[in-house]
Write a structure and sequence with these properties.
Elements lengths: L29 H14 L3 H12 L5 H22 L8 E2 L2 H14 L1 H20 L3 H4 L5 H23 L6 H20 L2 H5 L1 H16 L6 H5 L27 H28 L6 H21 L5 E2 L2 H9 L4 H15 L2 H9 L2 H25 L4 H21 L4 H4 L4 H8 L1 H19 L3 H4 L6
Antiparallel strand pairs: 1-2
Helix pairs in contact: 1-15, 2-3, 2-4, 3-13, 3-15, 3-16, 4-5, 4-12, 4-20, 5-12, 5-13, 7-17, 7-18, 7-21, 8-10, 8-17, 10-17, 12-13, 12-21, 18-21
């Protein structure tokens, strides 16, 4: 029998966080609510990074970035509202993530943008079905933390590779590298030597000071595109169907191999989200229950469908928002909903999207390097916190090693061999995340399930 209120853990993890506002509480003043919501958007103000990541992986022209940034902000607003109303109703912000961006970028590079939107929409429908069908809370036991950790660590590697590529993307003038170094040092200073909103918004503040102000003073900030952009524009349905340079006249294409490739990102995203739900409940001093998983995954899937329709990247739970709750003690669901409305307003202003896209790429790369390192270590931390057995060591080590080195091999010594592979296999061997998910799941099933002693398999599972 399905028991939505059943706790996930035998013993709920305790938190030392002192809450100023619980999930069902809210500030008495609307001005205070608005300020706290604005603070959330400052920390989660990263669609411009993920849009640029997607374009880089997919090999698309940079003219795609401003349109996608605006669409991503709208998708974040809609997704967060869905999560906090019909979803798990936790103070969780939805937004693009490294696992989904990497997977969809690989799909786009091989099969084109129509196939990517088809993959996003079908994948979102399947994710919503997994949540509504209450499957996620049942199958979570087959993908333990050691596998999730290896997948997240490989995501961190992809993000780090992109950050380094952006940092050194323009070596024609030393100005770019100097700005990148200054941005990196300023971001570190803000993150670790400051407190409150300065520390929490270190990405945005460093990018604005060095990228926008510093880039303008050095003459490397492209203001013409910002001046040409409109102040207000409504989102379009399938905006890239006839987009100059990438449009084919076709809105979406349903290709089985592309859908399967996109699902690798969705699988990684779903299990990351389960971990985020657990951490959010701990930070909010709320019991982590079965309904949080199933309703949360359902809402995420529906949000991804919306993302695909309006030309945005698929969304998932934002881990950094847990840090906001921990740092501020504000777990109010109302504050999170107001933040969602602000994201919608950001998306309706193309001039803001053009401004973010015009920032020198080396500056963004240098600041993003800190975030990428955080993602990578959070995965390693999950691996280390798992039970230290020889099997788990082999699972994590092989998964992480293969996901990093196979794509490296097929772009260097094995490039000629990879070019002879069918499109799907070519996409598989070039996708770090796809390899990590498949390798991790198969090795876990092989070593911890199939090769487990008979006596252990016969023991009842507590979950």
């Amino acid at each position: 029998m399905y028991q939505p209120e059943q706790p996930i853990f035998d013993e709920q993890p305790k938190s030392n966080i002192k809450l100023n506002y619980g999930i069902d509480e809210h500030p008495k003043s609307w001005w205070t609510t608005l300020y706290l919501a604005l603070q959330i958007t400052l920390v989660d103000f990263t669609p411009f990074i993920w849009a640029a990541s997607f374009v880089g992986i997919a090999g698309l022209p940079e003219t795609v970035i401003p349109v996608m940034i605006a669409a991503c902000f709208i998708s974040m607003g809609i997704g967060t509202l869905l999560q906090t109303t019909i979803g798990n109703r936790l103070p969780i912000v939805q937004g693009p993530s490294a696992s989904l961006v990497s997977a969809m970028g690989s799909v786009t590079a091989v099969y084109g943008m129509p196939a990517a939107w088809g993959s996003i929409i079908v994948g979102g429908l399947l994710e919503a079905a997994v949540g509504a069908g209450r499957l996620m809370s049942k199958i979570r036991k087959f993908i333990p933390p050691v596998v999730v950790g290896a997948v997240v660590a490989s995501i961190g590697f992809v993000a780090t590779k992109l950050a380094v590529t952006w940092t050194f993307s323009n070596t024609s003038s030393p100005v770019y590298l100097i700005l990148a170094l200054v941005a990196f040092l300023l971001a570190l200073f803000l993150k670790f030597c400051c407190k409150g909103i300065l520390s929490q918004g270190f990405i945005l503040i460093a990018v604005v000071i060095v990228g926008v102000i510093g880039g303008s003073c050095c003459g490397v900030m492209n203001w013409q595109s910002v001046l040409d952009a409109e102040w207000f524009a409504l989102p379009r349905i399938f905006p890239f169907k006839d987009f100059p340079g990438v449009g084919t006249g076709k809105a979406i294409a349903i290709i089985g191999a592309a859908i399967l490739g996109g699902l690798s990102g969705y699988i990684g995203s779903m299990f990351e989200s389960v971990g985020d739900y657990a951490a959010t409940c701990a930070a909010c001093d709320t019991m982590f229950r079965v309904r949080h998983i199933d309703r949360g995954i359902m809402a995420e899937g529906l949000s991804c469908v919306v993302s695909g329709v309006i030309g945005a990247l698929p969304v998932t739970s934002y881990t950094q928002n847990i840090g906001i709750v921990a740092a501020t003690g504000v777990a109010s669901r109302r504050v999170t909903r107001i933040a969602a409305v602000l994201f919608l307003l950001y998306g309706l202003c193309p001039k803001l999207a053009a401004l973010l896209a015009a920032i020198p790429r080396p500056v963004i790369g240098a600041v993003f390097l800190i975030t990428a390192a955080t993602i990578m270590f959070s995965g390693l931390d999950l691996v280390i916190s798992s039970e230290r057995t020889q099997k788990n060591t082999i699972i994590a080590g092989t998964t992480l090693g293969a996901s990093v080195m196979i794509p490296y091999f097929v772009t260097t010594a094995g490039k000629a061999w990879a070019s002879t592979l069918p499109a799907f296999l070519n996409m598989f061997v070039n996708s770090n995340i796809f390899i990590a998910v498949v390798m991790g799941v198969l090795l876990n099933l092989l070593l911890n399930v199939a090769f487990r002693p008979k006596k252990e398999r016969e023991k009842p599972d507590k979950n």
